[in-house]
């Protein structure tokens, strides 16, 4: 992992580091054969789709499935120290210069060791000078690696305007890979390393197809820019995205001495002006304003797809280790990256009980036999960059933390190979329809419950903590640990105490029948565990704009003929009209989770109309949904239900 150090200006650096730690960062869907949506008739979709010597490339048939983690990998340092060379500028094809810092192994006196080394690279958007990311992981350097950190175009001390994973960035990354291969300290073998933004650029480097990229260690990376974070459920993200844009922009506007022989005294001023112009006229301000007013990019356009690593995952052949979190902002996409890689390269997936910040560091590891991230990463790079026998290639394919069980459990795949889907129906109650029940039997009577379409519910919830990268969870920890407050403005359905434990693994779909008195509405679904004291411990959630809820069966995920992960096109063509008082069904994608509900505890599903700051409608859609009331139906002809992948408890390792 990268080291965060206060450098050069301690007081300023400390403030920036605190913000960076809180804010670092910025899917695709699978299919199973013969899906049948039990709410409508559909046609079945098609079936789914360097030290010498270097290790031989692996194919899926060569991989060993080992469900037990070995002891943490360790070895002695190869060199006693490390040293960073003066910061340099890399000139790109169009004349734009990117700031880079190279750190090399050093002797006892701090002198750089001459020679060629495998290179670990981190391409960042967070200004390496102030965040300390220029000071690479010295533990890796002393193990015999060169390390290069580069500020991406328009960020940090680099020239140009920031475009956030655009095609320009893709081209820059390919050029940087070529640059690294040609350097005198490089042996032509590259590993990509980093969390969040740096995990995303690592995946994009792998997607260049350059054979020099031989390993990727991507921590909490994004998969699908539109669905994962920016417009989840068709809603503009009002939490993380504004904070992230502010962070990247703010760090890019700080004066940055680049540390090289300054033959261009106007470099710093020119760069700052380029960053400011880009923010005001080219990217940040126009994109945020467009999200608010609902321009064409409120749909899933090429603008978002080019920024989505999941679109290029088939081009990644380098073995890739993916780290995710059950409450990460990229919770949806991290398993999908693994799923898109596993059939053509050696891919591993580790998901912890983390928000974005905790996931970036692998907080509280080692645990339950799972080593700390530094040990795992060293083994990964030593195996694939140095050809050492570390056992990394046979690490468990999937390791997930199960809430409720409160431990890490391994599996041969994701979702769990023994998973099967069960449908849980939401039932109203006489006199108290808002306090309903859950059974596995469809409703035999008709009930309905109504609630106001307030856009502010969700501020005291685990969701609010998640979508501010853990920030609100630090300020109001009781809100992050229960759903009872947010449930007050929702229709709540709770099962009887379970007779035996139940394990959940994978994505969930809420198929909710509803109507509105307005011309549009959001439909939210929360899943939680209710203990014997009535505390609702949050597991996961989803949000969906009703007018954008058309499902594309050919790209959706079905399990046992039940829809468990819808695929919403989010296109202008698929947008449907919502008429007042006219019932509709919304297929709500609930983000995948892993959990065990113990015997005696209860399953809770709650349905509402908002989840702030996770999502808020662009202004035209917001106006269409204001002053409305959402009615949720439980009836034989309108059976609101939730499809949940379950795993036999005895199948959990």
Automatic annotation (TrEMBL):
Work out whether the entry's keyword set contains Signal.
yes
Q: Where is this region: Disordered?
A: 28-63
GO molecular function, one example? dipeptidyl-peptidase activity
One matching Pfam family is: Peptidase_S15
> Which InterPro entries did the record assign?
AB_hydrolase_fold (IPR029058), CocE/Ser_esterase (IPR005674), Galactose-bd-like_sf (IPR008979), Xaa-Pro-like_dom (IPR000383), Xaa-Pro_dipept_C (IPR013736), Xaa-Pro_dipeptidyl-ppase/CocE (IPR050585)
Give residue spans, biased composition: Polar residues.
32-42
* SMART domains per record: PepX_C
Key words of the record: Hydrolase, Signal
Q: Where is the signal peptide?
A: 1-25
Specify the Xaa-Pro dipeptidyl-peptidase C-terminal domain's residue ranges: 378-643
Instruction: Cite the NCBIfam families for this sequence.
Output: CocE_NonD
- Protein name, UniProt field: CocE/NonD family hydrolase
**What is the scientific name of the source organism?**
Alcanivorax sediminis
Q: Provide the organism lineage as a comma list.
A: Bacteria, Pseudomonadati, Pseudomonadota, Gammaproteobacteria, Oceanospirillales
């Amino acid at each position: 992992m990268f080291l965060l150090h206060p450098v050069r200006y301690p007081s300023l650096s400390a403030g920036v580091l605190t913000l960076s730690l809180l804010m670092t960062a910025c899917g695709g869907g699978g299919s199973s054969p013969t899906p049948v949506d039990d709410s409508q008739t559909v046609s079945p979709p098609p079936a789914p789709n360097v030290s010498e010597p270097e290790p031989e490339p692996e194919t899926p048939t060569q991989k060993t499935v080992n469900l037990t983690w070995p002891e943490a990998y360790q070895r002695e340092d190869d060199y006693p120290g490390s040293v960073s060379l003066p910061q340099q500028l890399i000139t790109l094809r169009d004349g734009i210069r990117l700031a880079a810092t190279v750190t090399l192994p050093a002797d006892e006196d701090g002198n750089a060791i001459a020679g060629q080394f495998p290179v670990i690279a981190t391409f960042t958007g967070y200004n390496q000078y102030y965040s300390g990311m220029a000071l690479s992981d010295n533990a890796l350097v002393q193990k015999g690696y060169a390390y290069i950190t580069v500020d991406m175009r328009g960020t940090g001390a680099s020239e140009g305007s920031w475009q956030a994973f655009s095609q320009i960035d893709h081209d820059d990354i390919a050029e940087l890979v070529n640059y690294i291969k040609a350097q005198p300290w490089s042996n032509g073998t590259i590993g990509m390393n980093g969390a969040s933004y740096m995990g995303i650029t690592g995946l994009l480097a792998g997607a260049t197809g350059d054979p020099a990229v031989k390993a990727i260690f991507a921590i909490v990376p994004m998969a699908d820019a539109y669905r994962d974070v920016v417009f989840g459920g068709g809603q503009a993200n009002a939490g993380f995205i504004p904070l992230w844009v502010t962070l990247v922009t703010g760090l890019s506007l700080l004066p940055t001495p680049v540390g090289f022989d300054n033959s261009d005294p106007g470099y710093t001023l020119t760069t700052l002006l380029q960053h400011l112009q880009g923010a005001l006229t080219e990217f940040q301000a126009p994109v945020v304003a467009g999200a608010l007013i609902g321009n064409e990019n409120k749909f899933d356009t090429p603008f978002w797809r080019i920024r989505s690593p999941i679109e290029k995952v088939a081009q990644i052949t380098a073995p890739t280790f993916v780290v995710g979190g059950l409450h990460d902002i990229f919770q949806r996409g991290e398993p999908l990256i693994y799923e898109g890689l596993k059939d053509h390269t050696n891919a591993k997936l580790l998901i912890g009980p983390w928000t974005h910040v905790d996931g970036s560091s692998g907080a509280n590891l080692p645990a339950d036999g799972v080593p700390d991230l530094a040990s795992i990463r060293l083994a990964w790079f030593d195996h694939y960059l140095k050809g050492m026998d570390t056992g990394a290639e046979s690490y468990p394919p999937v390791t997930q933390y199960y809430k409720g069980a409160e431990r890490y459990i391994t599996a041969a795949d994701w979702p769990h190979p023994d998973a099967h889907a069960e449908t849980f129906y939401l039932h109203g109650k006489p006199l108290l329809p808002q306090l309903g029940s859950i059974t596995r039997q469809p409703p035999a009577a008709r009930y309905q419950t109504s609630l106001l379409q307030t856009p502010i519910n969700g501020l005291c919830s685990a969701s609010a903590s998640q979508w501010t990268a853990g920030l609100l969870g630090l300020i109001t920890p009781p809100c992050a640990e229960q759903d009872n407050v947010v449930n007050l403005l929702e229709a709540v359905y709770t099962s009887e105490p379970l007779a035996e434990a139940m394990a959940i693994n994978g994505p969930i779909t809420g198929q909710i029948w509803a109507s509105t008195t307005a011309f549009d509405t959001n439909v939210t679904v929360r899943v939680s565990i209710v203990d014997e004291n009535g505390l609702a411990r949050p597991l996961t959630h989803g949000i969906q704009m009703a007018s954008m809820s058309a499902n594309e069966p050919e790209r959706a995920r079905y399990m046992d003929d039940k829809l468990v992960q819808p695929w919403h096109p989010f296109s202008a063509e698929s947008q449907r009209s919502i008429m007042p008082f006219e019932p509709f069904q919304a297929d709500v994608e609930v983000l995948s989770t892993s959990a065990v509900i113990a015997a005696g505890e209860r399953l809770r599903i709650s349905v509402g109309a908002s989840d702030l700051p996770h999502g808020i409608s662009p202004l035209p859609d917001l106006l269409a949904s204001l002053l409305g009331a959402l009615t949720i139906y439980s009836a034989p002809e309108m059976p609101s239900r939730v499809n949940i992948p379950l795993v036999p408890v005895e199948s959990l390792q």
